[in-house]
Protein backbone atom coordinates (compact mmCIF):
# COMPACT_ATOMS: atom_id res chain seq x y z
CA UNK A 1 0.00 0.00 0.00
CA UNK A 2 2.89 2.38 0.74
CA UNK A 3 4.10 2.00 -2.85
CA UNK A 4 1.17 4.04 -4.22
CA UNK A 5 1.85 6.96 -1.85
CA UNK A 6 5.44 7.20 -3.12
CA UNK A 7 4.44 7.49 -6.80
CA UNK A 8 4.52 11.08 -8.13
CA UNK A 9 1.25 12.64 -9.22
CA UNK A 10 2.26 12.95 -12.89
CA UNK A 11 2.96 9.21 -13.09
CA UNK A 12 -0.41 8.41 -11.48
CA UNK A 13 -2.11 10.71 -14.01
CA UNK A 14 -0.25 8.96 -16.82
CA UNK A 15 -1.39 5.56 -15.54
CA UNK A 16 -4.97 6.85 -15.29
CA UNK A 17 -4.79 7.99 -18.92
CA UNK A 18 -3.42 4.57 -19.88
CA UNK A 19 -6.30 2.80 -18.10
CA UNK A 20 -8.82 5.06 -19.88
CA UNK A 21 -7.27 4.38 -23.30
CA UNK A 22 -7.11 0.63 -22.65
CA UNK A 23 -10.80 0.54 -21.64
CA UNK A 24 -11.91 2.50 -24.71
CA UNK A 25 -9.89 0.25 -27.02
CA UNK A 26 -11.28 -2.83 -25.27
CA UNK A 27 -14.82 -1.52 -25.78
CA UNK A 28 -14.21 -1.06 -29.51
CA UNK A 29 -12.65 -4.51 -29.73
CA UNK A 30 -15.43 -6.16 -27.68
CA UNK A 31 -18.15 -4.75 -29.93
CA UNK A 32 -16.33 -6.06 -33.01
CA UNK A 33 -15.59 -9.38 -31.26
CA UNK A 34 -19.22 -9.81 -30.25
CA UNK A 35 -20.52 -9.15 -33.75
CA UNK A 36 -18.01 -11.50 -35.36
CA UNK A 37 -18.61 -14.35 -32.89
CA UNK A 38 -22.41 -14.07 -33.13
CA UNK A 39 -22.09 -13.94 -36.93
CA UNK A 40 -20.01 -17.11 -36.85
CA UNK A 41 -22.67 -18.81 -34.72
CA UNK A 42 -25.35 -17.73 -37.20
CA UNK A 43 -23.27 -18.73 -40.27
CA UNK A 44 -22.84 -15.24 -41.75
CA UNK A 45 -19.79 -13.01 -42.29
CA UNK A 46 -20.36 -10.17 -39.80
CA UNK A 47 -18.45 -6.86 -40.09
CA UNK A 48 -15.69 -7.26 -42.66
CA UNK A 49 -15.54 -4.01 -44.66
CA UNK A 50 -14.03 -1.19 -42.58
CA UNK A 51 -10.41 -1.94 -41.80
CA UNK A 52 -8.70 -5.34 -41.72
CA UNK A 53 -11.27 -8.00 -40.76
CA UNK A 54 -13.75 -5.16 -40.10
CA UNK A 55 -11.85 -3.98 -36.97
CA UNK A 56 -12.70 -0.33 -37.65
CA UNK A 57 -16.45 -0.95 -37.84
CA UNK A 58 -16.95 -0.10 -34.15
CA UNK A 59 -15.07 3.18 -34.61
CA UNK A 60 -17.20 4.00 -37.65
CA UNK A 61 -20.39 3.35 -35.69
CA UNK A 62 -19.17 5.60 -32.87
CA UNK A 63 -18.39 8.43 -35.30
CA UNK A 64 -21.80 7.97 -36.93
CA UNK A 65 -23.52 8.40 -33.55
CA UNK A 66 -21.40 11.45 -32.77
CA UNK A 67 -22.61 13.24 -35.94
CA UNK A 68 -26.29 12.39 -35.47
CA UNK A 69 -28.71 15.07 -34.30
CA UNK A 70 -28.89 15.44 -30.53
CA UNK A 71 -32.56 15.62 -29.53
CA UNK A 72 -33.93 16.45 -26.07
CA UNK A 73 -37.69 15.85 -25.57
CA UNK A 74 -39.77 18.85 -24.49
CA UNK A 75 -41.16 16.86 -21.54
CA UNK A 76 -37.70 15.88 -20.26
CA UNK A 77 -36.00 17.30 -17.18
CA UNK A 78 -33.06 18.92 -18.94
CA UNK A 79 -30.45 18.80 -16.14
CA UNK A 80 -31.18 15.22 -15.07
CA UNK A 81 -31.51 14.12 -18.70
CA UNK A 82 -27.93 15.30 -19.32
CA UNK A 83 -26.50 14.10 -15.99
CA UNK A 84 -27.76 10.49 -16.29
CA UNK A 85 -25.31 9.27 -18.99
CA UNK A 86 -22.46 11.11 -17.22
CA UNK A 87 -23.19 9.21 -14.00
CA UNK A 88 -23.27 5.86 -15.81
CA UNK A 89 -19.97 6.47 -17.67
CA UNK A 90 -18.14 7.92 -14.63
CA UNK A 91 -19.03 4.97 -12.40
CA UNK A 92 -18.05 2.49 -15.11
CA UNK A 93 -14.56 3.95 -15.57
CA UNK A 94 -13.99 4.51 -11.83
CA UNK A 95 -14.49 0.84 -10.98
CA UNK A 96 -11.43 -0.25 -12.98
CA UNK A 97 -9.10 1.95 -10.90
CA UNK A 98 -8.38 -0.77 -8.31
CA UNK A 99 -7.97 -3.75 -10.68
CA UNK A 100 -4.39 -5.16 -10.56
CA UNK A 101 -3.17 -5.94 -14.07
CA UNK A 102 0.39 -7.00 -13.20
CA UNK A 103 3.20 -6.95 -10.63
CA UNK A 104 5.56 -4.10 -9.85
CA UNK A 105 7.47 -2.88 -12.92
CA UNK A 106 9.95 -0.15 -13.71
CA UNK A 107 8.15 2.74 -15.42
CA UNK A 108 9.97 5.95 -16.34
CA UNK A 109 12.53 5.49 -13.59
CA UNK A 110 10.04 4.57 -10.85
CA UNK A 111 8.98 1.18 -9.48
CA UNK A 112 5.21 1.03 -9.61
CA UNK A 113 2.54 -1.71 -9.73
CA UNK A 114 0.50 -2.18 -12.89
CA UNK A 115 -2.51 -0.88 -10.96
CA UNK A 116 -3.83 2.63 -10.56
CA UNK A 117 -4.43 2.41 -6.80
CA UNK A 118 -5.28 -0.03 -4.04
CA UNK A 119 -6.43 -0.01 -0.41
CA UNK A 120 -7.63 -2.43 2.24
CA UNK A 121 -11.22 -2.80 1.01
CA UNK A 122 -10.72 -2.11 -2.69
CA UNK A 123 -13.12 -4.89 -3.75
CA UNK A 124 -15.96 -2.93 -2.17
CA UNK A 125 -15.20 0.03 -4.45
CA UNK A 126 -16.12 -2.02 -7.52
CA UNK A 127 -19.34 -3.26 -5.91
CA UNK A 128 -20.22 0.28 -4.81
CA UNK A 129 -19.60 1.88 -8.20
CA UNK A 130 -21.56 -0.83 -10.01
CA UNK A 131 -24.49 -0.22 -7.64
CA UNK A 132 -24.31 3.57 -7.97
CA UNK A 133 -24.02 3.29 -11.76
CA UNK A 134 -27.62 2.09 -11.94
CA UNK A 135 -28.68 5.56 -10.78
CA UNK A 136 -27.71 6.73 -14.26
CA UNK A 137 -30.23 4.32 -15.78
CA UNK A 138 -32.95 5.15 -13.25
CA UNK A 139 -32.54 8.90 -13.71
CA UNK A 140 -32.42 8.49 -17.49
CA UNK A 141 -35.79 6.75 -17.49
CA UNK A 142 -37.38 9.12 -15.00
CA UNK A 143 -36.17 12.32 -16.69
CA UNK A 144 -37.18 11.27 -20.22
CA UNK A 145 -40.90 11.79 -19.71
CA UNK A 146 -41.71 8.51 -21.49
CA UNK A 147 -43.57 5.51 -20.11
CA UNK A 148 -41.27 3.09 -21.93
CA UNK A 149 -38.22 4.75 -20.36
CA UNK A 150 -39.73 4.67 -16.87
CA UNK A 151 -40.54 0.96 -17.16
CA UNK A 152 -36.98 0.24 -18.32
CA UNK A 153 -35.45 2.20 -15.44
CA UNK A 154 -37.65 0.42 -12.89
CA UNK A 155 -36.55 -2.91 -14.30
CA UNK A 156 -32.90 -1.84 -14.06
CA UNK A 157 -33.31 -0.87 -10.41
CA UNK A 158 -35.06 -4.13 -9.48
CA UNK A 159 -32.48 -6.12 -11.45
CA UNK A 160 -29.50 -4.56 -9.69
CA UNK A 161 -31.07 -4.98 -6.24
CA UNK A 162 -31.78 -8.66 -6.91
CA UNK A 163 -28.45 -9.66 -8.43
CA UNK A 164 -26.26 -7.39 -6.31
CA UNK A 165 -27.12 -9.60 -3.32
CA UNK A 166 -26.04 -12.80 -5.06
CA UNK A 167 -22.92 -11.07 -6.38
CA UNK A 168 -21.99 -9.81 -2.91
CA UNK A 169 -22.48 -13.25 -1.37
CA UNK A 170 -20.18 -14.78 -4.01
CA UNK A 171 -17.51 -12.18 -3.21
CA UNK A 172 -18.04 -12.82 0.50
CA UNK A 173 -16.99 -16.43 -0.06
CA UNK A 174 -13.65 -15.16 -1.40
CA UNK A 175 -13.28 -13.03 1.73
CA UNK A 176 -13.91 -16.12 3.88
CA UNK A 177 -11.33 -18.16 2.02
CA UNK A 178 -8.55 -15.54 1.76
CA UNK A 179 -9.25 -13.46 4.89
CA UNK A 180 -8.43 -10.46 2.66
CA UNK A 181 -10.38 -7.65 0.98
CA UNK A 182 -7.63 -5.99 -1.08
CA UNK A 183 -7.51 -6.78 -4.79
CA UNK A 184 -3.74 -7.17 -5.03
CA UNK A 185 -3.61 -9.19 -1.79
CA UNK A 186 -6.24 -11.62 -3.12
CA UNK A 187 -4.17 -12.15 -6.28
CA UNK A 188 -1.06 -12.86 -4.16
CA UNK A 189 -3.05 -15.29 -2.00
CA UNK A 190 -3.70 -17.42 -5.12
CA UNK A 191 -0.01 -17.73 -6.04
CA UNK A 192 0.67 -20.93 -4.11
CA UNK A 193 -0.35 -24.13 -5.97
CA UNK A 194 -2.71 -26.65 -4.43
CA UNK A 195 -0.89 -29.91 -3.81
CA UNK A 196 -2.31 -33.01 -2.21
CA UNK A 197 -4.05 -36.29 -2.87
CA UNK A 198 -7.65 -36.96 -3.79
CA UNK A 199 -8.90 -40.56 -3.65
CA UNK A 200 -5.28 -41.75 -3.59
CA UNK A 201 -4.21 -39.71 -6.62
CA UNK A 202 -1.65 -36.92 -6.15
CA UNK A 203 -2.35 -33.60 -7.85
CA UNK A 204 -0.85 -30.14 -8.24
CA UNK A 205 -3.22 -27.41 -9.38
CA UNK A 206 -3.06 -23.61 -9.57
CA UNK A 207 -4.23 -22.05 -6.32
CA UNK A 208 -7.07 -20.23 -8.03
CA UNK A 209 -10.25 -19.90 -6.02
CA UNK A 210 -12.55 -21.10 -8.78
CA UNK A 211 -11.44 -24.64 -7.90
CA UNK A 212 -12.20 -24.45 -4.18
CA UNK A 213 -15.08 -21.99 -4.53
CA UNK A 214 -16.69 -23.46 -7.65
CA UNK A 215 -20.31 -22.73 -6.58
CA UNK A 216 -19.39 -19.10 -5.81
CA UNK A 217 -17.69 -18.81 -9.19
CA UNK A 218 -20.78 -20.05 -11.04
CA UNK A 219 -23.07 -17.76 -9.02
CA UNK A 220 -20.73 -14.84 -9.68
CA UNK A 221 -20.79 -15.49 -13.44
CA UNK A 222 -24.60 -15.55 -13.52
CA UNK A 223 -24.92 -12.49 -11.27
CA UNK A 224 -22.39 -10.43 -13.24
CA UNK A 225 -24.39 -11.00 -16.43
CA UNK A 226 -27.53 -9.79 -14.65
CA UNK A 227 -25.62 -6.90 -13.09
CA UNK A 228 -24.48 -5.59 -16.47
CA UNK A 229 -27.93 -5.95 -18.14
CA UNK A 230 -26.64 -8.32 -20.79
CA UNK A 231 -28.59 -10.98 -22.68
CA UNK A 232 -30.40 -13.10 -21.65
CA UNK A 233 -30.96 -10.59 -18.81
CA UNK A 234 -31.26 -7.44 -20.97
CA UNK A 235 -34.79 -6.70 -19.78
CA UNK A 236 -34.26 -2.96 -19.04
CA UNK A 237 -33.80 -2.34 -22.77
CA UNK A 238 -35.94 -5.13 -24.22
CA UNK A 239 -36.60 -3.87 -27.75
CA UNK A 240 -39.56 -6.22 -28.26
CA UNK A 241 -41.40 -4.64 -25.30
CA UNK A 242 -39.90 -1.25 -24.40
CA UNK A 243 -38.48 0.06 -27.72
CA UNK A 244 -35.07 0.73 -26.15
CA UNK A 245 -36.00 0.91 -22.48
CA UNK A 246 -34.36 3.65 -20.42
CA UNK A 247 -32.47 4.93 -23.51
CA UNK A 248 -35.54 5.32 -25.75
CA UNK A 249 -35.50 9.14 -25.81
CA UNK A 250 -31.71 9.50 -26.12
CA UNK A 251 -29.75 10.12 -29.29
CA UNK A 252 -26.25 10.97 -30.54
CA UNK A 253 -23.41 10.82 -27.98
CA UNK A 254 -25.72 10.60 -24.97
CA UNK A 255 -27.20 7.41 -26.43
CA UNK A 256 -23.70 6.07 -27.12
CA UNK A 257 -22.61 6.88 -23.55
CA UNK A 258 -24.97 4.30 -22.06
CA UNK A 259 -23.58 1.54 -24.23
CA UNK A 260 -20.03 2.69 -23.60
CA UNK A 261 -20.79 2.30 -19.88
CA UNK A 262 -22.35 -1.12 -20.50
CA UNK A 263 -19.30 -2.49 -22.31
CA UNK A 264 -16.88 -0.95 -19.80
CA UNK A 265 -18.90 -2.64 -17.04
CA UNK A 266 -18.55 -5.92 -18.92
CA UNK A 267 -14.77 -5.52 -18.99
CA UNK A 268 -14.69 -4.48 -15.32
CA UNK A 269 -16.79 -7.42 -14.16
CA UNK A 270 -14.68 -9.81 -16.22
CA UNK A 271 -11.55 -8.32 -14.64
CA UNK A 272 -13.10 -8.67 -11.17
CA UNK A 273 -13.93 -12.34 -11.82
CA UNK A 274 -10.38 -12.85 -13.10
CA UNK A 275 -8.92 -11.26 -9.96
CA UNK A 276 -11.13 -13.04 -7.44
CA UNK A 277 -11.34 -16.53 -8.94
CA UNK A 278 -8.81 -16.97 -11.78
CA UNK A 279 -5.57 -15.85 -10.15
CA UNK A 280 -5.56 -12.34 -11.63
CA UNK A 281 -2.38 -11.70 -13.62
CA UNK A 282 -0.76 -14.96 -12.45
CA UNK A 283 0.18 -17.36 -15.29
CA UNK A 284 -2.06 -20.41 -15.89
CA UNK A 285 0.69 -22.85 -14.85
CA UNK A 286 3.02 -23.22 -11.84
CA UNK A 287 5.41 -20.28 -11.72
CA UNK A 288 8.30 -22.68 -11.01
CA UNK A 289 8.06 -23.84 -14.62
CA UNK A 290 8.84 -20.38 -15.96
CA UNK A 291 9.67 -17.79 -13.26
CA UNK A 292 9.85 -14.93 -15.80
CA UNK A 293 6.17 -15.46 -16.67
CA UNK A 294 5.17 -13.57 -13.51
CA UNK A 295 7.63 -10.69 -13.94
CA UNK A 296 7.68 -7.47 -15.94
CA UNK A 297 4.96 -6.71 -18.45
CA UNK A 298 4.33 -10.33 -19.52
CA UNK A 299 1.58 -10.85 -16.88
CA UNK A 300 -0.54 -8.41 -18.89
CA UNK A 301 -0.88 -11.21 -21.46
CA UNK A 302 -2.25 -13.65 -18.88
CA UNK A 303 -4.56 -11.05 -17.36
CA UNK A 304 -6.16 -9.83 -20.58
CA UNK A 305 -6.30 -13.38 -21.94
CA UNK A 306 -8.51 -14.38 -19.00
CA UNK A 307 -10.60 -11.22 -19.39
CA UNK A 308 -11.19 -11.98 -23.07
CA UNK A 309 -12.19 -15.54 -22.19
CA UNK A 310 -14.87 -14.19 -19.84
CA UNK A 311 -16.00 -11.66 -22.44
CA UNK A 312 -16.48 -14.62 -24.78
CA UNK A 313 -18.86 -16.07 -22.16
CA UNK A 314 -20.95 -12.88 -22.44
CA UNK A 315 -21.07 -13.23 -26.23
CA UNK A 316 -21.75 -16.95 -26.04
CA UNK A 317 -24.76 -16.40 -23.79
CA UNK A 318 -26.13 -13.71 -26.08
CA UNK A 319 -25.80 -15.91 -29.14
CA UNK A 320 -27.41 -19.02 -27.64
CA UNK A 321 -30.01 -18.12 -24.97
CA UNK A 322 -33.33 -16.34 -25.50
CA UNK A 323 -34.36 -13.48 -23.23
CA UNK A 324 -35.94 -14.62 -19.98
CA UNK A 325 -39.42 -13.61 -18.97
CA UNK A 326 -39.31 -11.07 -16.16
CA UNK A 327 -40.89 -13.34 -13.55
CA UNK A 328 -38.44 -16.12 -14.46
CA UNK A 329 -35.57 -13.69 -14.14
CA UNK A 330 -36.59 -12.47 -10.68
CA UNK A 331 -37.32 -16.02 -9.54
CA UNK A 332 -33.81 -17.09 -10.54
CA UNK A 333 -32.27 -14.30 -8.48
CA UNK A 334 -34.36 -14.50 -5.31
CA UNK A 335 -35.35 -18.17 -5.15
CA UNK A 336 -32.23 -19.86 -6.54
CA UNK A 337 -29.06 -17.76 -6.43
CA UNK A 338 -29.56 -16.15 -3.02
CA UNK A 339 -30.59 -19.36 -1.16
CA UNK A 340 -27.82 -21.38 -2.83
CA UNK A 341 -25.27 -18.69 -1.91
CA UNK A 342 -26.36 -18.73 1.73
CA UNK A 343 -26.21 -22.53 1.96
CA UNK A 344 -22.77 -22.55 0.34
CA UNK A 345 -21.50 -19.85 2.71
CA UNK A 346 -22.61 -21.93 5.71
CA UNK A 347 -20.82 -24.99 4.30
CA UNK A 348 -17.69 -22.94 3.58
CA UNK A 349 -17.70 -21.45 7.07
CA UNK A 350 -17.94 -24.95 8.57
CA UNK A 351 -14.98 -26.10 6.45
CA UNK A 352 -12.84 -23.11 7.46
CA UNK A 353 -13.74 -23.40 11.14
CA UNK A 354 -12.74 -27.04 11.04
CA UNK A 355 -9.22 -26.01 9.98
CA UNK A 356 -9.09 -28.32 6.97
CA UNK A 357 -5.88 -28.69 5.01
CA UNK A 358 -5.66 -27.64 1.37
CA UNK A 359 -6.31 -31.13 0.02
CA UNK A 360 -9.20 -31.56 2.46
CA UNK A 361 -10.49 -28.13 1.47
CA UNK A 362 -10.56 -29.23 -2.16
CA UNK A 363 -12.31 -32.44 -1.18
CA UNK A 364 -14.91 -30.70 0.96
CA UNK A 365 -15.26 -27.99 -1.67
CA UNK A 366 -16.18 -30.62 -4.25
CA UNK A 367 -18.62 -32.23 -1.81
CA UNK A 368 -20.15 -28.85 -1.02
CA UNK A 369 -20.33 -28.01 -4.71
CA UNK A 370 -22.14 -31.28 -5.41
CA UNK A 371 -24.58 -30.56 -2.58
CA UNK A 372 -25.26 -27.08 -3.92
CA UNK A 373 -25.74 -28.50 -7.43
CA UNK A 374 -28.28 -31.03 -6.15
CA UNK A 375 -30.08 -28.29 -4.24
CA UNK A 376 -30.16 -26.12 -7.36
CA UNK A 377 -31.58 -28.95 -9.48
CA UNK A 378 -34.30 -29.54 -6.89
CA UNK A 379 -35.17 -25.83 -6.94
CA UNK A 380 -35.25 -25.70 -10.75
CA UNK A 381 -36.94 -29.06 -11.33
CA UNK A 382 -40.16 -28.42 -13.27
CA UNK A 383 -43.34 -29.37 -11.43
CA UNK A 384 -46.14 -30.65 -13.61
CA UNK A 385 -49.74 -29.98 -12.70
CA UNK A 386 -52.12 -32.95 -12.87
CA UNK A 387 -54.19 -33.13 -16.02
CA UNK A 388 -57.61 -31.53 -15.74
CA UNK A 389 -60.07 -31.83 -18.64
CA UNK A 390 -61.25 -28.52 -20.03
CA UNK A 391 -64.78 -27.39 -19.22
CA UNK A 392 -65.08 -25.84 -22.70
CA UNK A 393 -66.30 -28.37 -25.30
CA UNK A 394 -63.84 -29.28 -28.01
CA UNK A 395 -64.56 -27.45 -31.26
CA UNK A 396 -63.08 -30.24 -33.35
CA UNK A 397 -59.53 -28.89 -33.54
CA UNK A 398 -57.99 -30.61 -30.50
CA UNK A 399 -58.85 -27.88 -28.02
CA UNK A 400 -56.69 -25.22 -29.66
CA UNK A 401 -58.12 -21.69 -29.57
CA UNK A 402 -59.43 -20.73 -33.02
CA UNK A 403 -61.55 -17.78 -34.17
CA UNK A 404 -65.25 -18.44 -34.85
CA UNK A 405 -66.10 -19.47 -38.38
CA UNK A 406 -68.62 -16.60 -38.80
CA UNK A 407 -66.08 -13.96 -37.76
CA UNK A 408 -66.35 -10.72 -39.73
CA UNK A 409 -63.07 -8.84 -39.80
CA UNK A 410 -63.65 -5.06 -39.53
CA UNK A 411 -62.07 -2.95 -42.24
CA UNK A 412 -58.79 -1.16 -41.59
CA UNK A 413 -58.75 2.66 -41.16
CA UNK A 414 -57.54 2.97 -44.72
CA UNK A 415 -60.36 0.68 -45.84
CA UNK A 416 -62.89 2.80 -43.95
CA UNK A 417 -61.63 5.93 -45.71
CA UNK A 418 -61.92 4.29 -49.11
CA UNK A 419 -65.42 3.02 -48.24
CA UNK A 420 -66.57 6.50 -47.22
CA UNK A 421 -65.16 7.99 -50.40
CA UNK A 422 -66.95 5.34 -52.47
CA UNK A 423 -70.26 5.99 -50.67
CA UNK A 424 -69.84 9.74 -51.19
CA UNK A 425 -69.25 9.21 -54.91
CA UNK A 426 -72.32 6.97 -55.16
CA UNK A 427 -74.48 9.56 -53.36
CA UNK A 428 -73.20 12.30 -55.63
CA UNK A 429 -73.85 10.19 -58.74
CA UNK A 430 -77.41 9.34 -57.63
CA UNK A 431 -78.18 12.98 -56.92
CA UNK A 432 -76.93 13.96 -60.40
CA UNK A 433 -79.16 11.29 -61.96
CA UNK A 434 -82.20 12.61 -60.07
CA UNK A 435 -81.51 16.17 -61.22
CA UNK A 436 -81.17 15.08 -64.84
Automatic annotation (TrEMBL):
<feature type="transmembrane region" description="Helical">
    <location>
        <begin position="361"/>
        <end position="381"/>
    </location>
</feature>
<protein>
    <recommendedName>
        <fullName>NADH-quinone oxidoreductase subunit H</fullName>
        <ecNumber>7.1.1.-</ecNumber>
    </recommendedName>
</protein>
<comment type="subunit">
    <text>NDH-1 is composed of 14 different subunits. Subunits NuoA, H, J, K, L, M, N constitute the membrane sector of the complex.</text>
</comment>
<keyword id="KW-0812">Transmembrane</keyword>
<comment type="similarity">
    <text>Belongs to the complex I subunit 1 family.</text>
</comment>
<keyword id="KW-1133">Transmembrane helix</keyword>
<feature type="transmembrane region" description="Helical">
    <location>
        <begin position="255"/>
        <end position="277"/>
    </location>
</feature>
<feature type="transmembrane region" description="Helical">
    <location>
        <begin position="207"/>
        <end position="226"/>
    </location>
</feature>
<keyword id="KW-0874">Quinone</keyword>
<keyword id="KW-1003">Cell membrane</keyword>
<dbReference type="GO" id="GO:0050136">
    <property type="term" value="F:NADH dehydrogenase (quinone) (non-electrogenic) activity"/>
</dbReference>
<dbReference type="InterPro" id="IPR001694">
    <property type="entry name" value="NADH_UbQ_OxRdtase_su1/FPO"/>
</dbReference>
<dbReference type="InterPro" id="IPR018086">
    <property type="entry name" value="NADH_UbQ_OxRdtase_su1_CS"/>
</dbReference>
<comment type="function">
    <text>NDH-1 shuttles electrons from NADH, via FMN and iron-sulfur (Fe-S) centers, to quinones in the respiratory chain. The immediate electron acceptor for the enzyme in this species is believed to be ubiquinone. Couples the redox reaction to proton translocation (for every two electrons transferred, four hydrogen ions are translocated across the cytoplasmic membrane), and thus conserves the redox energy in a proton gradient. This subunit may bind ubiquinone.</text>
</comment>
<keyword id="KW-0830">Ubiquinone</keyword>
<feature type="transmembrane region" description="Helical">
    <location>
        <begin position="336"/>
        <end position="355"/>
    </location>
</feature>
<keyword id="KW-0520">NAD</keyword>
<feature type="transmembrane region" description="Helical">
    <location>
        <begin position="12"/>
        <end position="33"/>
    </location>
</feature>
<feature type="transmembrane region" description="Helical">
    <location>
        <begin position="121"/>
        <end position="142"/>
    </location>
</feature>
<dbReference type="Pfam" id="PF00146">
    <property type="entry name" value="NADHdh"/>
</dbReference>
<keyword id="KW-1278">Translocase</keyword>
<feature type="transmembrane region" description="Helical">
    <location>
        <begin position="297"/>
        <end position="316"/>
    </location>
</feature>
<feature type="transmembrane region" description="Helical">
    <location>
        <begin position="79"/>
        <end position="101"/>
    </location>
</feature>
<keyword id="KW-0560">Oxidoreductase</keyword>
<keyword id="KW-0472">Membrane</keyword>
<feature type="transmembrane region" description="Helical">
    <location>
        <begin position="163"/>
        <end position="187"/>
    </location>
</feature>
Amino acid sequence: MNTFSEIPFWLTALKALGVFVVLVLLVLFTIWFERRVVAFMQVRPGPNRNGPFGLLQSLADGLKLAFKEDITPRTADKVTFLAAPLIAVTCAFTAFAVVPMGPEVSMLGYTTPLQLTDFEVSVLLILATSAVGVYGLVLAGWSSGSSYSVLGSLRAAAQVISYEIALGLAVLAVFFQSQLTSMSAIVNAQSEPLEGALFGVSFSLPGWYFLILAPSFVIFLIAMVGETNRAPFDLPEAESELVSGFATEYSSLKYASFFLAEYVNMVTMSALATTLFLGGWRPPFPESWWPAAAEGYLPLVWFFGKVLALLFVYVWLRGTLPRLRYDQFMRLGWKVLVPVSLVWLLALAAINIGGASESAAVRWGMIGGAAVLIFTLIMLWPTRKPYEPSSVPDGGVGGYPVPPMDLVVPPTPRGLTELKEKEALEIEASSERKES
